[in-house]
User: Fold this.
Amino acid sequence: MTVDIAIKEVEYNLKLVFLGPPGAGKGTQAAYIAEAGAIPTISTGAMLREAIANKTELGKLADSLISKGELVPDEVIIGVVKDRLKLDDCKNGYILDGFPRTVKQAEALDEMLPDAIDIALSLEVPDEDIIERLTGRRECEKCKATFHIKNNPSTKGDICDKCGGKLIQRADDSAETIKNRMSVYHAQTEPIKDYYKKLGKLVCVDGVGSVEQVRTALFKALGL
Ligand code: AMP
Assistant:
């Protein structure tokens, strides 16, 4: 009940960005906060995968870059996010997962919207843990919920607990692509932490532990 009351307080205007390496648990944890605050999660990775599935122009451009673990060009993804943030469901706040991914994107976001971000939450997970997490990660084909074969399995094996969809491995969760995604992360994405630190918006949370432990730590850090 206490939680419900706290949730009501953030139902309006929480603009959050999730930082952290691929596989840190951003998507999983974002879903909890989004539900609690009744705000949308905007995952650029999910939007790009949808574009690939729908064979749009954006999808065609993104396909080979994603499968190599490279980033989509800044100007392309900035345009996608700009359009998405104009939609009505963003007026009471949002959670950004996977964007910004370069300092240029972070700067563009601040130019796009005054006070685009209240808090930048960085989920801290060491490199050693990331490989294990990414290779064991599974995603629901239908509702996009994420699971892990050991740490957060579906009770129904390779069927999604939430919607009954089929659980699959993402194409870019292969060992070779993971290596490149990690080096791209350290070179291009990690410097964003400093960007938000200088703005006094960075909050770091230990992302090692069970999904439940990390969720508790995150909610505490957000004062929920
Ligand atoms: P994610 O689901 O966040 O791990 O993203 C999967 C892939 O989509 C990344 O490895 C990139 O190739 C691409 N991608 C997602 N978000 C961005 C972004 N903000 N900028 C550039 N590329 C992105």
